[in-house]
Every structure is written in C-alpha cells, then in structure tokens.
Amino acid sequence: MVSAEITGIGWVTTAGMGCGKDHDRFDTPCGPLPEIAPADVFDKPYPHFGRMDKYSRIGLTAIAFALKDAGLAEWKVKRNIGIIASTVYGCLGTDVDYYDTVMSKKGLGASPALFSYTLPNSFLGEAAIRFGLTGKSFIVNEQVPSGLACLNMSLDSIGCGESKTMLCGVCDLGCPPALGANSNLPPGALFFVIDKSPMKGSSTYGTVSLDRKYRILFRQTEIEDLTMLVRKCLTGYRSRQGKSKTLGIHVQTR
Amino acid sequence: MRRVVITDATTITAPGNNLSELWQGLLAGETAIRPVNRFPLDNYGSKIAACIEDLKPINGHSMIHALLDRLFFEMGPVPPDSFLITATTKAGIDNLETLRRGNSADFQDVLLSSITDIVSQKLGLVGSGINVSASCASSTIAIALGAEMIASGRTEATLICCADLVTEFIFSGFSALKALSPVPCMPFDRGRNGLSLGDGAAALLLMSHSRAKRENRERLGTILGSGITNDATHITAPSKSGRGLIHAIVQALKKAGRKPDEIGAINAHGTGTVYNDIMELNAFKRVFGKRKVPVYSVKGVIGHTLGAAGGIEVILGLKTLSTRIVPPTVGFSDPEDGAKGLVSSEPQQISGGCLLTTNSGFGGVNAALVLGR
Question: Which residues, including other chains, have CB under 8 Å from residue A115's CB and lie 6 or more apart?
C-alpha cells in the first residue's frame, strides 16, 4: 500500500481563492471565477502572469496556493517535484481565441503568443518554471472525470520512488460559450501537495493512500472525487486545530 | 516488478498504412513530406507536410475517426480487459476549425478524451481509460505509464493508442512561431531550419510477460525503463544544456537497470529545429561521453507527428532492435557540431541489445524510454 501526507491545498473557485489552511469550507457556487491579479498570488511582481491565458492563470494560481500552503513556495534550487493535472475542456477557450486570429487574416494574423497556450499542459510548464519543479508533468483527460486519476498516478510516482513530493489536481474553465455546448462542470482549479516525508513539525491534513484494490483512501474512507477529498481535509484539519469556525467561506480577493 | 512486453503494434503514417510500408520507406530514405492540399497555404512560409493524402472527415466527424479506423486494420485482437491509455495533443481539432467557420461538426471530437472514447468503443474495451497530453512527449509518457501499471501489478495488459493530425490550426501555429522548415526537415544537419509536420497514429499492446506467455502471444520487445522530467526553463524552447533530458535518460537507465554502454542506438526526437537538435546532442554527449552511439531521427520521412511521435518511434525502435538495422536520418547530410560519427544518412548496424528513445516538447517536458529485445 502506498501512502503520503497531504501537506498543501490551493484553489481558485467561484467562491474565491486561497490556501486550504486559511479556509473552513470549500464550495463551488454558481457564478464567475474571480479576477486574479499577480499581487493576489505572488509576493514579487510577475508581469509574465498577465500574458498567460485564463486557463493557465487559474491553474498556476491554484498550484501557487497549494505550494504556499505546504510551505514550499520559496526555493533556491530546482526540486524534483512532479505535477499531474486532470482536465475535461483544457485550454479549449484559448484554442477558440487562437483560431479566430488565424481566420481573421487568412493565417497572417495567427498569434504565436496565443498558440503557445493551446496545449493543456502549458500551465504545468509555467508552474515548473515559476517554482523550479523538475519532476514529471502531464495532463490526464479521464473518461469519467473525477480527478482521481491524477491523485492515483501521483501516489504511484511516490510509491515507485520517482519523487517524494507531487502536485496533483484539476483545472477547468468549462466549455467555451463560442462552441455552444453546455457544461455542468464547475469552473476552477484545485491542487494538492502530497508528500512522502513532510518536514518535521509541518502541519498536514492527513494521510492519503492507495489500498490493494487501488482505491484512494483518506482517513480510512474511500474517496470518490477531489471535492470530497478537500472537504474531508478541511474538516479534519479544523477539528484537530480546535478552531471549528463557522464563518463560512473566506474569500480572498483583491 | 513484473516484466513488460509489447505483443502487438501498428502504425499509420504518410509513408504507409502499416509498419511494413513505413519501415521500407525509412530504409529507402524516401521522404513523405510533400506539398499540402488540405487547407490554403498562401500566407504560410512553409507549404509542406507529411499528410496521409486521402484522409477525409466523414459526416461531421473529425478526420481523427478515419485515421483511427485505418490504424486498427492490421492489429490483432485486443483483450477487452486491457486498460486504455490514449495520447494526443489536439485530437479532432479540425472540427473546431469547421465549427468556427460556421459549419456543422461533432463538437465532442474536439475534446482530447474523444480519442479514448472512439478507441474504447471500437475495440469493445470494458474499463474506462484515460488520455495523456504532454505536448510532443504525450505518447512516450503514455507508454511509460502503461508499462508501470503492468510492472507494478495493477493490470496485466494496457493498450496505448496515439494520434495527431496536420490541421490548419497546428500548421498556422508552428508557422507563426517560425518553426516550420520550407523544405523537408533536416534533423541534425547544419543547414536545418525547422520542423515538418506529419499525420500519424500508432497502437501498442503491452502485457505482462507471464500473460503474454500464457496466451502464446508474439513478443516484439520489452519496455525496460522510463524517465520523465521537466526543464523548468521555458515554455516553448528547450533547455540549452539538455539538463532535463539528461535527467530523463539517467532515470530511464536506472529503472531499466542498464548502463549507458548497453545502449546500442538512440532514436532521437530530432525535429530539425535549431535548438531541439543541439539540445539533444548536448544531452547525449553528457550521458554517453565519447562513445559513438548511433543516433537517428525518422522525422525527415514521416514529419513530426506531435503527440503520436513517441508511439510511432517506439514501434520503429523495436523494428530497429529486431532487424539490427538503424534507419538512416533522411534530410541529414552536413553534420551539426557533435553529430558527426553519430548520425548517418545511411542505414547502420546496431550493436547491443537496448535502444533509447526520447521525446521533448512544449511545456519543458522530456521523456525517455529504454527498450529491449
């Protein structure tokens, strides 16, 4: 059985954005995602952030908060930390924007800057650069989207000794309105840091593991999707901290 | 850890509808990179790619359906319990073009998971699968994951299927990045000036050695080890030092329990872009030192098939191991610094029982696999 500690959680949802340890609840109400300014996420100016597509910005933001929550946002030497992310629609909105630049002048107006973000794994590269992460990084599209495949594979990666620390999560903006298809998928990004051997004294949410049937367990309960996992993490963390607040969601916005 | 063997494999590329035709085309040194007539090219610097000429969208479906239909013509039976891992960068992106131009097309084909759905239904696979997307290393990573699932005992069989198309979307993007060569690409040549795109798909059936033996399946080769890393330096450009690729190769050799001396040939990513090829030569030099390991690229024949490149190249790597012939690098004549004595425009003999295959891509991704007989 492979197991690891969940040491950090970060998200961007329609309810706001931030680190797990600053929040009591995780929710995805109807509504738009918050506008994200670099100062909301990064201590130092990061002009490049504004040049990214929206999909990359929400993914990178959730990763930044997850690493901050785990105490891993600061670094001097690149680290063997991998990222596996699940998505359904990926960067489809950017694809539409890019192809519109192609059509506008019969190819002459094709935007190289937008084209660079027409791969769903581009934001993983951005996160790798920003946080010095040299482990494996790729996107998974599940036939039955639950986000669990990326957690499963991250635990495998830790189990076989490839990395001691992995980031895994989901990132989606939903279906672009220009394509007309309806989507009941809540937009946003949610990432977890899982660590085989967290630093001594660091606060963790609990142990996540793969059992012999490759089911994902958190505190001995089978997890059905990542939303369920984050909620269990927050509840358990708060009860252990003895600060069972009932203030609702802490929305960190500008 | 259980031994992982490849029991069946098939390809479809511009040089041919099967592996045999592709292999013959490679050995003959014939490029399939030709003028494109799939979309208007007036405003692009390059006008060529390795397209499968008679690939057409049918009844609102993306061309990816036609590509996958043909891919499985020569594939033997796939066990329904095989775990499916597909790999693509853009799936049926031609349908997004159609939709944006105001015509009707199946929206579902645009989603990356559409390939998983199509293959799963076509072959009657019982479980749900996944698609992997990691730019030009997508299928290399898919194979690594499939092999790891078998090695760890999670499953006994995985089917890896990868596919990507030459579309206006992709062609215009690489053109805008000034990454397309106006002539068929020239991997590792001093005069190289960019890549050429290509249509392509591949399927590989991976099995535990014990099950393959039990079912009396042919064993085409073995996946011995894999390594996947990120450069963490740039989104579209490779790390000049090749550090990320070096780490991926070292990781793959370590997992395989092999030393660099045991590698008989290297299938390089070899896109023909200035920076990719020099990065790879730097990485190979660091890992293999002064030893002259034959290095080859197949992209001068089939073009860069993006997410399908790794899968097609693993199958060609197995062919290289079984025939002991390293295919020529078509388009190569004047060696880039560091390529002399490694890359050849003629077929070479392979010594040693293992082959290294590598792919790198946007997002800083590097992936390496060590294959055995």
Answer: A98, B172, B173, B174, B176, B177
Window 241-280 of B: residues touching A by CB (8 A cutoff) are 244, 247, 251
Q: Which of A102, A138, A143 sits opposite B168 (nearest CB)?
A: A102
Contact B192, B181 (CB under 8 A): yes
Tokens of B220: 């085409």
CB contact under 8 A, A119 and B135: yes
Tell me the per-residue pLDDT of A133-158, one tens digit each, with 9 for 90 and over: 999 999 999 988 899 999 999 999 99
Phi, psi of B267 (to 5 degrees): -85, 105
Check B363 against A144: CB less than 8 A apart: no
Closest-CA residue of A relative to B118 is A143
Q: Name the residue facing A125 among B42, B89, B364 (closest C-beta).
A: B364
Mutation target among B89, B230, B360 for the A interface, most CBs of A within 10 A:
B230
B227 CA: distance to closest CA in chain A (Å): 8
Q: What is the mean pLDDT of chain B?
A: 96
Q: What b-and-e string marks burial along B64-99, b requiring 16 or more CB atoms within 10 Å of the CB?
A: bbbbbebbbebbeebbeebbbbbbbbbbbbbbbbbb
Closest chain A C-alpha to B328 CA, distance in angstroms: 31
Q: Given this model, what pLDDT does residue A183 score?
A: 74
Count of residues in chain B: 373
Number of Cβ within 10 Å of residue A25's Cβ equals 16
Q: Which residues pair with B350 in a beta bridge?
A: none
So what's the pLDDT on residue A243? 54
B-chain CB neighbours of A108 within 8 Å are 43
Q: What is the mean pLDDT of residues A238-244?
A: 73
Residue A185 has pLDDT above 90, yes or no: no
For residue B180, the cross-strand partners are B195
What is the pLDDT averaged over residues B343-365? 95
Q: Give me the sign of the Cα torsion angle B274, B280, B284, B287.
A: positive
Beta strands in B29-152 (DSSP E): 34-35, 48-49, 83-87, 130-133
Q: Do A88 and B100 touch (CB under 8 A)?
A: no
3 state SS of A174: coil
Could you list the beta-strand ranges (E) of chain B: 4-13, 34-35, 48-49, 83-87, 130-133, 157-164, 200-208, 221-230, 263-267, 295-296, 325-326, 348-349, 354-361, 365-372
Structure tokens at B119: 């293959």
Give the phi and the psi of residue B230 in degrees, each rounded to 5.
Answer: -125, 135
DSSP assignment letter at A1: -
Which of A:130-149 have CB within 8 Å of B? Answer: 132-144, 149
| Beta pairing partners, B228 | B367
In chain A, what residues touch B232 (CB-CB under 8 Å)? 78, 128-129, 132-134
Task: Check residue A239 and give its pLDDT.
Answer: 86
Q: Specify whether the backbone of B73 is left (phi greater than 0), alpha (psi in -120 to 50) or beta.
A: alpha
Cα–Cα distance for residue pair B55/B167, rounded to 1 Å: 12
Q: What is the ipTM of this complex?
A: 0.97
Residue among B101, B134, B154 whose CB faces A137 most closely: B134
What pLDDT was estimated at residue A238? 85
What are the backbone angles phi and psi of residue B5, rounded to the nearest 5°? Answer: -115, 155
Q: What is the mean pLDDT of residues A68-96?
A: 97
Contact A110 B172 (CB under 8 A): yes
SS3 B304: strand
Among A183-187, A226-230, B256-260, which is the least confidently predicted range? Answer: A183-187
